[in-house]
Amino acid sequence: MALLYRADLTPGKLDLIAGWLPGRPWYRGPAAPQPERVSAFRFDDPAGEVGVETILVRAEPDGPVYQIPLTYRDTPLPGAEAWLLGTSEHSVLGTRWIYDAAGDPVYAAVLAAAILAGGTEAAEEISTDEGLVSRTPAMSVRGTGTPGADVPAVTAVAAVKDADPTVITTDSLTLALARVLDGALPAGPALLWGERALAAVV
């Protein structure tokens, strides 16, 4: 379950994405984008410490859709300065360090688990004064693996090739992440599927 809050985030996620996106080697939009959220989904961090959200955005009307997974942390991730979009002030949780999740081992672990064990997006609940309120996720995803399958433990990201697809090499497996959702992922059975293939274990 992803626990959310009715809160303000300053600067907002789209503001941070707007400043970060033009520096990506796979980006092909305007120099000063005004990203528009197309959809989003979340995964659970089993430890309950790191927020994991994938946002799909367009940088311009009728432009391609970009897949941008983010992780939200309450302290900096050591050694991940290259993947930091910036910090933001959350009106409930305080300062959040927001990362391109390609460089975060928690994202690699939950993505691999979703793909190999047939996982889905997390259920979402919003914390309110009246208690927890369920919210329907904006989109659904599913891994093509088998529920209950063994998933190699991922504890570190060894290397990231920041291209399209982005290739994430961990200490136990390699993942490919589609960035521009009109391209292609490596063929194979181990995929995360939305309306199209979003990521793969390769």
Describe, in short, the structure shown.
The chain has 202 residues and is mainly beta. Helix content is 10%, strand content 39%. It has one domain (2-201).
Summarize the structure in words.
This protein is mostly beta strands. It has one domain (2-201). Helix content is 10%, strand content 39%. It has helices at 13-20, 105-116, and strands at residues 2-5, 9-10, 36-43, 51-58, 65-73, 84-90, 94-100, 124-128, 131-135, 142-143, 157-161, 166-170, 174-177, 191-193, 197-201. It is globular and about 40 Å long. The two termini are 27 Å apart. This is Maltokinase N-terminal cap domain-containing protein. It holds the Pfam family Mak_N_cap. Residues 20-104 form the Maltokinase N-terminal cap domain.
Primary descriptors:
single chain, 202 residues, mainly beta, 6-stranded antiparallel sheet, 2 helices, Maltokinase N-terminal cap domain-containing protein, ATP-binding
Could you give a short account of the major beta sheet? 6 strands, antiparallel
Rg, please? 16 Å
Q: What is the total number of structural domains?
A: 1
What is the typical, i.e. mean, pLDDT?
A: 91
Series of H and E elements: EEHEEEEEHEEEEEEEE
Q: Which structural class fits the helix and strand makeup? A: mainly beta
Q: What's the number of helices?
A: 2
Q: Order of strands across the biggest sheet?
A: 2-6-7-5-4-3
- Beta fraction: 35-45%
- Number of E strands: 15
**Unreliable spans:** none
Through-space gap between termini: 27 Å
Relative helix content: under 10%
Oligomer: single chain
Indicate the overall shape. Answer: globular
